[in-house]
Write a structure and sequence with these properties.
The structure is a single chain. The chain is α+β, with helices and mostly antiparallel strands. It has four domains: 175 residues, Chloramphenicol Acetyltransferase (2-Layer Sandwich); 206 residues, Chloramphenicol Acetyltransferase, CATH 3.30.559.30; 79 residues, no CATH class; 128 residues, SCP2 sterol-binding domain (Nonspecific Lipid-transfer Protein, Chain A, 2-Layer Sandwich), CATH 3.30.1050.10. It contains 20 helices and 26 strands. Strands 5-6-7-2-13-12 form a six-stranded mixed beta sheet, with helices on both faces. A six-stranded mixed beta sheet has the order 8-15-14-11-9-10, with helices on both faces. Helix 3 links the parallel strand 5 and strand 6. The longest helix has 34 residues. The two termini are 24 Å apart.
Length: 731
């Protein structure tokens, strides 16, 4: 973490978010999450403090030259302290979800303090059913919808086993902030370079459009999009009952749906996306709300602005947020399927048009104006969005697998988004762990009946599901828990409140069995597994355990295994007592050289990794259902660290066993592997040293899935984690 490097100027979109922030429309983005169990506040605060240095932006605040003579700039806060950002709030027990919803609305209604880094986290205790709430609150100038979960993922684990606090937390010694005169001088000095880089960015967009107009098919799609955009805006957009004068009193409400159901609905319409399905539902809910509270004459659609991520991989964080927008019209059809078809056709047409690049250019232009004029520009500009659309609707994809905070499973996640001035509603679509949520963010002065509107979301979803002839999801089937049982185990009985293991343990030296019993309290359902008594020479086998159990049952079984497989203590014999004291001989000290670890990504490293994987019982338990084929790790070329060409190691993985491992040329590994994970030397070292989480790197794109399906890989994240643990042991 380099605190001495030159200060970073906010990008064009970030600058807009910074200036638009007001008491009536605070620019807060984040999520309301619910975890099982009670999370200790002191431990939670210490956890954030131990990991926050991995995301240096969260330790920086915005500074600016007097009279806005320079651009807003990020600088390390000399007074940064975790207690200024992590807070604890209490609900009167037993707190309900409705209590949490109302509290969250009050929290996000407040502007963030600009005298410190622009983020806060609130731990909410007192929730019923032994749960804990967390409200994550971040200024939109820091993050976009995807990188908003960077801190989120930094703190959360993909297994119940929490990572320990960092042992290598660097000392926090930021340089002093520049004085006002220094900021003015620096602003003038850097202004030319900043505007030159923005002009280069605009030139890149111009080249993009040149390539479009040189291609007949792309040119046709772009002209269609432009024609639709002009046609839709020939007349001023009529206001709906969801538009008005903002008060700053924010409310939240949410609905949650099975992701598989939503995907089944999507599959009924060609070109439809999951996002199209939920936009259709939101449009239907707004129509129903308007029928109750006042239809606008002649208005037969609602227009939503959908943010589009414009960041390119090679930019590596330049220009801050790279967000454009696309307008999406959702018709007020009474037929849900007709509405979905119209939405799918319209969104596909707008996405193919390339208009997002044009709007990205428009959002960049104000940053070329003199710095003192930009606050005025961005004070007026949001009003233009209110004339273009009725609301914003964004989509955020959280990990599709369970996440844990210090061993506590995250049960629910509801994202939220700021309101644009003049809009009383924004919606956030967020998927997590097989569920997808629609969160409504409203201004109380414009939409006083948020719970009513939320009910209409549920009704519109049900109507669309039935119209698509998609059956309602049944409760989840019993989970398959892979348990590797020692052959000496006779029976495992998992009762509702107790786990009893009856075992005859490993044979004692005299050939007789020794009895052992273990009892452990756990809140699960009843499962009885009978294991036939094996012959003496039978090796340990894997049994499928089918049970409707809580998520920690696998951990219980693993703990039971450890007890079962533990060897009996050797009998001890008292040492003879010497009749006369004896003089101790001088100790002989032998120097044993530590074994040298094989070179990274060499054949010797691959063979050592194979051994480590096959010795890793946790990997075996997590991977007995893996039949997707070989996986390759790829190191990008880096001459400085001994890799003049890309290097690859191919792992032949099958049902929990590594059958073979070889260092191969890149082309050969790519052709044989079903999945390929690639990154550069520094990122591999961060993974192998435990400094970085592979999941977060995949989400951020720093660890790239070059081949294979993310959907097929995600159910085996525990397997991937154990592969990394095995690699760490040989590196």
């Amino acid at each position: 973490m380099d605190m001495q490097k030159p200060l970073t100027i906010l990008g064009p979109v970030d600058t807009a978010f910074y200036y638009v922030d007001s008491r009536e429309t605070p620019m807060n983005i984040g999520a309301v999450t619910i975890f099982d169990g009670k999370i200790d506040f002191d431990h939670f605060s210490a956890l954030i403090d131990s990991r926050i240095h991995h995301v240096p932006l969260y330790m920086q605040k915005v500074i600016q030259a007097p009279l806005t003579l320079g651009q807003p700039t990020w600088a390390f806060d000399p007074e940064f302290a975790i207690e200024n950002h992590v807070f604890r709030l209490h609900l009167d027990a037993p707190g309900t979800d409705e209590d949490l919803r109302e509290l969250a609305g009050a929290v996000i209604s407040q502007m963030l303090d600009r005298a410190k880094p622009l983020w806060e986290v609130y731990l909410i205790d007192g929730l019923a059913h032994d749960r804990t709430g967390l409200i994550w609150k971040i200024h939109h100038c820091m993050v976009d919808g995807m990188s908003a979960i960077e801190l989120f993922l930094l703190l959360l684990d993909i297994t119940p086993d929490s990572k320990p606090f960092s042992d290598e937390k660097p000392a926090y010694a930021p340089p002093p902030l520049p004085s006002a005169p220094e900021m003015v001088v620096e602003a003038f000095r850097r202004d030319l370079d900043t505007k030159r880089s923005l002009i280069d960015k605009l030139g890149h967009e111009v080249n993009y459009f040149s390539s479009i107009f040189a291609d007949r098919e792309k040119r046709r799609k772009t002209f269609i999009g432009i024609a639709n955009l002009i046609n839709d805006n020939l007349k001023p957009l009529k206001k709906l009952v969801i538009n008005g004068q903002n008060s700053g009193r924010m409310q939240l409400a949410w609905n949650e749906f099975p992701l598989e159901e939503v995907k089944a609905i999507r599959a009924t319409v060609k070109h439809a996306s999951v996002n199209d399905v939920l936009l259709t539902v939101i449009g239907g809910a707004i129509h129903q709300y308007m029928r109750r509270h006042g239809l606008t004459p002649g208005q037969n659609f609602v227009r939503m602005l959908v943010p589009v991520n414009m960041r390119e991989k090679e930019e590596k964080g330049e220009f801050g947020n790279r967000i454009s927008v696309l307008p999406m019209d959702v018709p007020f059809n009474t037929d849900p399927m007709a509405r979905l078809l119209a939405v799918a056709d319209y969104t596909q047409m707008m996405k193919q048009s390339g208009l997002a690049h044009g709007l990205d250019m428009i959002l960049t232009l104000p940053s070329l104006a003199p710095s003192p004029t930009q606050p005025l520009i961005w004070h007026v500009a949001p009003g233009a969005f209110a004339y273009l659309a009725h609301l914003w609707a964004t989509n955020v994809a959280a990990p599709p697998l369970p996440l844990y905070l210090s061993g506590h499973k995250m049960l629910h996640a509801y994202g939220y988004f700021p309101l644009n001035p003049g809009n009383g509603l924004a919606s956030v679509i967020m998927s997590y762990d097989g569920r997808i949520t629609v969160t409504l963010v409203t201004d109380e002065a414009i939409i006083p009946h948020v719970l009513e509107l939320n009910e209409y979301v549920q009704e519109a979803y049900t109507a669309l599901r039935k119209a698509a002839k998609v059956p309602e999801s049944k409760p989840a089937p019993p989970r398959i828990v892979e348990a590797k049982l020692e052959p000496s185990v006779e029976k495992v009985v998992v009762t509702e409140t107790i786990v009893t293991v009856e075992s005859y343990g490993p044979p004692a030296p005299n050939g007789k069995a020794t009895a052992a019993a273990v009892e452990q309290s756990v809140d699960v359902h009843t499962v009885v597994i009978d294991v036939p008594e094996p012959a003496a020479d039978v090796q340990p086998v894997s049994e499928e355990v089918v049970a409707a159990v809580e998520p920690n049952a696998e951990a219980v079984i693993a703990a039971v295994e450890d007890v079962i497989s533990a060897p009996e203590p050797e009998p001890t014999t008292a040492a003879p007592v010497a009749s006369e004291p004896e003089l101790a001989a001088d100790p002989v000290v032998e120097t044993v050289a530590a074994p040298q670890k094989p070179a990274l990504f060499s054949q010797a490293w691959a063979e050592a990794l194979k051994v480590a994987i096959n010795d890793n019982q946790a990997y075996y338990r997590a991977s007995t259902r893996w039949d997707a084929g070989a996986l390759a790790f790829v190191m990008e070329a880096d001459v400085r660290h001994g890799f003049p060409e890309p290097a690859a190691v191919l792992l032949d993985l099958d049902h929990g066993v590594c059958k073979d491992a070889n260092a191969l040329p890149l082309d050969e590994a790519m052709s044989h592997a079903a999945f390929v994970l690639e990154t550069d030397y520094q990122h591999w070292m961060n993974i192998l040293s435990g400094k970085s989480q592979p999941l977060m790197m995949l989400m951020r794109g720093t660890l790239k899935l070059k081949k294979g399906s993310m959907a097929k890989l995600m159910p085996f994240t525990q397997s991937a984690q154990e592969l990394v643990h095995s690699a760490q042991s040989v590196s």
